[in-house]
Amino acid sequence: MMTYGLKLICSLGVAVALGGSVASAAGEFDNAIKARKAVMSLYAWNLGQLAAMAKGEADYNADAATTAAENIRILASMNNGSAWPQGSDSTALPGQTRAKVEAWTTYPESAEIGKQLIVAATAMSEAAGSGVEGVRSNIGAIGGSCKACHEKFRESD
Length: 157
Ligand code: HEC
What we know:
Blueprint: H1 2-25, H2 30-55, H3 62-77, H4 102-105, H5 109-127, H6 132-153
C-alpha cells in the first residue's frame, strides 16, 4: 500500500513538472526556430559525409557523395523564409535561438550567402561522382558559405 501511494505521488509529480515545462517553453516562434535548426542539421549531416570522404575517414563512394551534394543543393534551394519570422532573433529571444537580429536588419545579405551556397553545392553535385578529388576540390566553397553566414548572423557558442 505504501509503495503504491508513493508511486502515485511520484507520477503526479512528474505530470505536473512536465505540464509546467511545456507551458513555459511554448512560444509563438518555437516551431519556426525548430524547423530552421532542422534544415541546418541536415546541412551538417550531409556535409559531414562529404567531409569524411574528403579526409579519408570514410571510403569514397560516388553515389553517396553525389547524393549528399544534391541534398545540400536542394536544401539551399528551398524557400524556407517562413521559418525565419520577424522577431525570432537572439536579441528578442535570448537562449532560444542563435540567429542574430542582423539577419533581418541587413536582409537580403544572408540570402546572398544562401545563393553562394547553391552555386557551391551545384559545383559539388557535378564533381562529386567523378572521384574523391572532386569532393576535395569543392568542399571548401561549401564550408566557406556556411562559415560566412555563421560569422555574420549566428551567435557564437
Ligand atoms: C544564410 C545563412 C546561413 C547559411 C548559408 C548556413 N547557416 Fe547554419 N545557421 C545559420 C543561423 C542564423 C543559425 C542559428 C539558427 C537558430 O539558432 O535559430 C545556424 C545554425 C546552424 C547549426 C546549429 C543548429 C541547431 O540545432 O542549433 C548548424 C549545425 C549549422 N547552422 C550548420 C550549417 C551548415 C553545415 C551550413 C552549410 C552547408 C550552414 N549551416 C549554412 C545561418 C546559416
